[in-house]
Amino acid sequence: MANSDFLRANTNQHSVKNSLSHKMDKDIDVAVAQVMSMLRKKYPQLSFRHQKSMILTDIIGGLSQEYPEYAPIYSDVLKTSFIKPDGGFVYAKDAHGTEKIVLVAEVKRQGTNDKRAEEGKPKQALGNAIERLGKNLIGIRAIFKNESVLPFVCFGQGHDFREGSSILDRVVTMNEFFPLNTVYVQKAYTPFEPVSMFFRYHDWEIQDMVRIMFDVATQAVNEVF
After folding, report:
1. Which residues contact 21 (CB under 8 A, 6 or more apart)?
2. 3-state DSSP call for residue 30?
3. Which of 8, 32, 108, 217 places its Cα 20 to 30 Å from the Cα of 119?
4. What is the model's pLDDT at position 131?
5. H or E segment at 15?
6. Model-level pTM?
7. Which of 101, 187, 176 minimizes the C-alpha distance to 137?
8. Which one-letter DSSP state was computed for residue 42?
9. Contact between 64 and 100 (Cβ < 8 Å)
10. Residue 225 to residue 217: CA distance in whole angstroms
11. pLDDT, tens digit (0-9, with 9 covering 90-100), for 5-20
């Protein structure tokens, strides 16, 4: 059964979300692994590692070092709270021990009203996948606040992201009104910080994600090393 058919047939929304997320997480994990293999071949002088999540206290600690004047102002957060983008964080390290994040990846699926319309069923309320994306994006922008790059990429798929959908305007707003389906890595539009938001109706193939992520990561590596 296709993913969209399964979503409409199952009444347990949590089970549906977990099932769809499992496939999407598997695809992005495969794609990230391929990108890391390609990076190791292209940059043999660097080492690369993958990290799935980042503790919020570590993010605040890094910001406190970079902006000590604001350290007394930052809020206290639980030591167990974290940010976990779907594709995780890819780090690169040089021979001197300098380590930088060169890729952060997300995937989001939202919308099945195309299939419901074919069956004469009423529309369902629009999903909130991009709201969760917005939360992560705020944290990721903070991580890179003192960096010259912002190598974040999100792949969105589903009926809610079809051409002409008002949901796409929400994504454009998250991207500070910069165009979608464009690679942005270097912070060349100060004070704005656009990121690479690739959204469309059709599902993303692994190789498509690999191609785009490798472009983002190589631009980041070339900029910071």
Report:
1. none
2. helix
3. 108
4. 84
5. helix 13-42
6. 0.84
7. 176
8. H
9. no
10. 12
11. 544 544 444 455 456 5
